[in-house]
Amino acid sequence: MAVAASASAMSQDILRVPPPKADARVSYGHGPQQFGDLRLPAGKGPHPTVIFIHGGYWRNTYNLDHTGHACAALAKAGAATWNIEYRRLGDTGGGWPGTMDDVLHAGEFLRILGPRYNLDLRRVVASGHSAGGQLALWLAAQMAVELRGVIPLAAVSDLRRAFALQLSNGVVGQFLGGSPDRVPQRYAATSPIELLPISAPQRVIHGTADDIVPFEISERFAKASHNAKLIPLPGAGHFELIDPKSREWETVRKNIIDWDF
Fold this sequence. Notes:
Rossmann fold; 10 helices
């Protein structure tokens, strides 16, 4: 237990260490949270591209900086990364529906970024961590962006189940403005498991020892989806999945970068 606790503490260092600088910070809207960090791989392109969405249980406690490490590593491995910020709980307009609106607009903004930065819009995948995994799956379900696949990392992919478990002090109810009984249409419109089938193939990656988003949530989602592959990471917690220094990172990298890019 001491070793596991130590590894978990080390994985959370990713939340505090400043990430490598992005190649460009670009606004996709007029609001202070409506921007993204673009990182480009070596070479002229056209570059395969990863839309990456950070987590933090939809709260503004955390921003896109902590996933900058993962995005920089993916860029080094050969893919451009569009690491998006969005309105969250605590921001004006954050939560339902503003968070969803921002993610959709940020994804669609690739059409403008593509010719400007020589991105290959025929080779785009979406990935996200924790609450960002829910948002990545939701984005895929909207079919507003052509995606080759979606790679949710420790995703909150079943919002009704997350509400029942009262994860993070009942944050799902705060995010959607009520319980499943009170606002059932919002759960139906945002919970990935209720949006199935999702046409883009899914590679669902989750640590089996995750104590922030339980592994069972990804198990339930992958079992319900006919287009998903569950990739368990034995003994891994929550943050190893976005830490390029972790032993789990190679599995994450491979499943994002090696998608017929």
